[in-house]
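Hi R.,

Here's the chain you asked about this morning:
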Amino acid sequence: MFDRLGLVQIDSVNVLARAHTVPFFSRLGPYDPALLERAAYAGRRRNLFEYWGHEASLIRLDLHPLLRWRMKEAEAGRGIYDGLRRFAAEKRPFIDEVLREVERRGPVTAGELEAAGEESRKGAGGWWGWSEAKRAVEWLFWAGLLTTRTRRGFARVYDIPERVIPADILSLPTPQPADAHRGLVRVAARALGIATEPDLRDYFRLRPEASKAAVAALVEEGDLIPVAVEGWRAPAYLHRDAARPRRVEACALVSPFDPLVWERDRTERLFGFRYRIEIYTPAHKREHGYYCLPFLLGDRIAARVDLKADRAAGRLLVLSVHLEPGGAPEEVRAALDAELAQVAAWLGLATVVHGRAAA
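And here is the predicted structure, written out as tokens:
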């Protein structure tokens, strides 16, 4: 899966399951999430690392060199949000002190650093509080000077890369930014199959000028084939190895944070499906629900389903189902019911509860 996708997005929302665990269920069916946990955090045997790919992400370890340009830019104050950039410019000696503290202490959370600051404050005057500790490790993470050793609950446990990233990865040469951009767009193109340049750009959140140059180079190299897609205004690019099946047999609930639907414009172009997550929409303005998952059936998105895991009661709550136009309702509902039963079993929930009983 990671050979194909390159990365998955991490998000704190846990209404159904952690965002980074669901894309694998969508594609593989019921699996043991401990496999993903080991791949991400199992010491020197890991083959994933955390960094900013498409937002905060779990990324294939061999892609580490391709993201070092982003780390260097962050260290230089570029590509990060203004508040963090100003903090780093004003507080660099303090940030260096935080880095030395992590080097000395070993794996540590931002909260534990705050506690160390409290102890220090009682003694020799103190050196940081919660917000400062959090921003310091956030900047160090952006700059690649700290990385995630593991997570406790959902909190990052930070450590220096030399104690986390395997030496054979750290010793790989750092490519020039233009070469790294080509490598990242190549990963995006293989994952998406067919896409416009802005679609490819969005996968690793590249800047337009970098993405356009990378796409042009990959066309020249033969990795991308320029094509026209009926109904698409922008030129499209087909990855040279993209499969073109005669039929699509997919049946999957898709996380709002799945690479299939990251770029909402592409989702609409591919499926005629306008999709917006409504977590941040006031309840009275929501059309489809707080945590609404598209339901992919064959080659179309056939429904959207608002789900919630009631772990305490062992129930999968189906708060609403909205069928999309154009399908056979009975066929869609039968396939969806079977998929919901699999989701519940995968999450260890005993029952699936629909409609008003789930409210």
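One quick note: Residues 196 and 233 are 10 Å apart (CA to CA).

Cheers,
M.
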